[in-house]
What we know:
Blueprint: H1 2-17, E1 23-26, E2 33-38, E3 41-46, E4 48-50, H2 51-57, H3 62-65, E5 67-71, E6 80-82, E7 100-104, H4 114-126, E8 130-135, H5 137-140, H6 145-171, E9 178-183, H7 185-196, E10 203-207, E11 228-232, E12 248-252, H8 266-283, E13 287-291, H9 294-299, E14 307-309, E15 321-325
Parallel strand pairs: 7-8, 7-9, 9-10, 10-11, 11-12, 12-15
Antiparallel strand pairs: 1-4, 2-3, 5-6, 5-8, 13-14, 13-15
The structure holds 2-acetamido-2-deoxy-beta-D-glucopyranose.
Amino acid sequence: MAAQMIVLVFCVAAVAALPADTVISKLNDGPRYQYVSSGEGPKLVDTWLTSSSMARTARYAPDTENVYHLFTRQNPTISQPMLLGVPSLIAANFDPSRSTVVLIHGWSSSATSDFVVNLVPRILAAADVNVIAVDWSAGAYEPNYYSVVANNVPLSGSSIGSFIFWLNLSTGASIATYHVIGFETGAHIAGLVGRSLGGLIPHITALEPPRPGFNLNSNAFLSTDGIFTEAMHTNAGVTGLVQPVADVDFYPNGGTTMAGCRWWDWECSRDRAYQYLGESILTGGFTGVLCESLLEATSGSCESEETLNMGGLTAKFGSSGIYYLTTNEQSPFSTG
Ligand SMILES: *[C@@H]1O[C@H](CO)[C@@H](O)[C@H](O)[C@H]1NC(C)=O
C-alpha cells in the first residue's frame, strides 16, 4: 500500500513538473480550435496534439477495450457482449449463416447512443440478421480531437477489422455477408474497417462523415473501402464533409440544413442521417435524383430522370453518382 502511494505521488509530481503542455503536432493548417459534432452535440475542439493527450491516448487498447454487443431477433433488447480473441464469449445467438450488420458510433459517444437505439430495432424488424453494435467508447471519449482522429480512429478501425476476421476464423461467418454502418466519426472508422479487410466488405454506409481533421487525411472514408459504399451528408460544410466520398453520395435537402431543423442546430441536421436510414430500412422511399455536379446537389437543381433510393439494407452494386432529394420536416421523412 505504502509503495503504491509513493508511485502515485511520483507520477503526479512528474506531470506537474512539465513546464507547459507542449504542442507536438497539428492535424491540419486550419485554426487550432474547430467545431466537431459529438455524441453530446457540437464541441469546440483542440486539433493540436499536446504531450498530455498523447500520454492518455497511448493507453487506448481497442483489441481488449472495444466491446461487440450482439442483438438478434432472439435477443432484441439485451445484448450478448463479445470481445476480440475470447472464444468463451462468442455469443450463443450469433448465427454465422445469417448476414451481419455492424454499427459504429461516433466521437464522445457509446453503444447506448441514439444512433444505435434507433437502428437496432428497425434492422431486426426488417431482416433476420446479426446486429453487432461496436462500443469503442474507451477511445471515443478522449477530449483531444487530434488524438481521436490521428490515433484512436485508425486503431479502432483495424481492431474492428481484426474482430470480423477473427469471427470468421472462429465461426465461419463470411466477410461477404457484412454491412458496416458508421455514424459521424464512426463513418470514417467504417471505411477503415473495410480497408483493413482488403475492401471486401460488400456494403458500407457512411452517415454524416465529419470534416474537421479529415480533409486530405489518408484515414478519411474512401469509395474503395467496400465493394458498394454509400454516404449520406446531412450537415455538409458545417461539421460534415462536403465532397463526395463514396460510390453513391446523397445530399438530402442540399446536404447542410435538414428540413425541420434550424440552420444553427447542427445536432438536429446531423442526427437526421440515422433517422432517415432507420425509416428507409422499414418503409423504403427517399427517392434521390441524379445530379451532374456537387453544386447541383447542394443547390437542389438536379433534373435528371435517373433516380436511386437512399439507405436501406440492400447494397446497390454498380450504382454511382451524386443524388439529391427533399424530405418532410418530421417523421415520416420520406416524400416518396
Ligand atoms: C470465412 O469462412 C468461410 C467458411 O465458412 C470461408 O468460406 C471464407 O472464405 C472465410 N473468409 C472470409 C474472408 O470470409
